[in-house]
Design brief:
The protein has about 350 residues and is α+β, with helices and mostly antiparallel strands. The protein is about 50% helix and about 5% strand. It is built from 17 helices and seven strands.
């Protein structure tokens, strides 16, 4: 009986308690703005960029730490997955067919922008395919939270991300972006092309002269901005991107899998037992990259335009995926076998 009376008493108290008490929202943790590194950051950007301190603090006060972002930063896929796994992740039938369909639907804009900038349309499409599945997956973290978490709770790259946080403070009023609503990747990259704030400010362009740079909804702006990014990083119109190799039975080369610089030539690799398939001049600068397969090692050679793609994401695997997806897309388009793909 006593137990029953106790249960009835607890139930009665719950029923008569105010709704606010029964449904009290959970308070999300915030950053302590008195931390020395945050105080120093605020003082620096206020002095350097002529920002109002109260406004900067008011925005940073809304930031929420995201521990899952730190976990994600320690295992980016392009650094831990072997090439054959990375390739299969991005070269799916779905991604190829959706890319080909996007090309067909936006052919006029793609070919106009490609002609003006010298970047083949299929590479503009492939970047979007690898980054966000053509705008379908733009990221769900608030950019403010991501940049603050990486600026103040991720020491290995805190300097870089504090620079991006500063650029975000300058970007959102310029582009009329709501800083508390805009979302992106766990690294703070935004929009369909996944531009970091500094890249948005430097390389985003108005692709249709409507006096705005919208990387979420305006395909002309999105495509023109990707093309501009490539051009500003040295894209060579009509130049090669990637070539296959054939090795001598006993090649003499050594490879640094982290290297992305064009530190070899066609001729120097030939001398080390690496034959490059194609007709490139012996003095052409190249980089030898690992393209390991399930059954053993394999190698490919990247040219200047391959290097340019690595400026978008500093990974040879990433650049190979973009190249291979671009080739698959244009082959599908030219074959006339594009499939109807659901738009986001």
């Amino acid at each position: 009986m006593t137990s029953r009376r106790t249960c009835l008493l607890v139930l009665t108290l719950l029923l008569v308690a105010p709704a606010s008490a029964r449904h009290k929202p959970v308070q999300q943790p915030k950053f302590d703005l008195k931390r020395p590194e945050i105080v120093a950051f605020v003082n620096d950007v206020v002095a350097r960029d002529q920002l109002k301190k109260k406004q900067v603090l008011a925005l940073l006060r809304k930031g929420e730490p995201q521990p899952k972002i730190i976990e994600a930063m320690t295992r980016p896929a392009e650094k831990v997955a072997p090439w054959w796994e990375y390739h299969d992740r991005f070269l799916t039938e779905e991604r190829i067919s959706q890319g080909a369909q996007f090309y067909v639907e936006h052919r006029e804009s793609l070919e106009r922008i490609a002609s003006a900038r010298g970047v083949p349309p299929e590479y503009l499409v492939a970047i979007m395919g690898v980054e966000t599945k053509y705008g379908r997956v733009n990221g769900h973290y608030r950019v403010l939270d991501a940049l603050m978490t990486l600026s103040f709770d991720y020491p290995p790259r805190s300097d870089y991300f504090r620079g991006e946080l500063e650029q975000f403070l300058l970007l959102y009023p310029e582009e009329h972006i709501d800083p508390l609503k805009v979302t992106g990747s766990y690294a703070g990259a935004m929009g369909v092309p996944q531009f970091m704030p500094s890249s948005y400010r430097l390389f985003a362009v108005d692709g249709n002269e409507d006096q705005k740079r919208d990387l979420w909804n305006d395909w002309d702006d999105i495509l023109a901005s990707i093309a501009n990014y490539f051009v500003e990083h040295g894209w060579e119109a009509g130049g090669p991107v990637l070539a296959e190799t054939k090795l001598d039975p006993e090649p003499k080369f050594q490879i640094d899998t982290r290297n992305l610089e064009l530190n070899e030539t066609v001729e120097s690799l030939n001398a080390q037992g690496v034959a490059i398939l194609g007709d490139q001049s012996g003095t052409t600068p190249v980089v030898l990259v690992s393209a390991e397969q399930q059954d053993g090692p394999a190698y490919r050679v990247g040219f200047k335009n391959f290097y340019v793609i690595t400026r978008y994401n500093r990974s040879a695997r990433y650049a190979m995926a973009v190249h291979d997806l671009a080739e698959a897309i244009i082959q599908r388009v030219n074959s006339g076998q594009t499939l109807e793909a659901a738009r986001p």
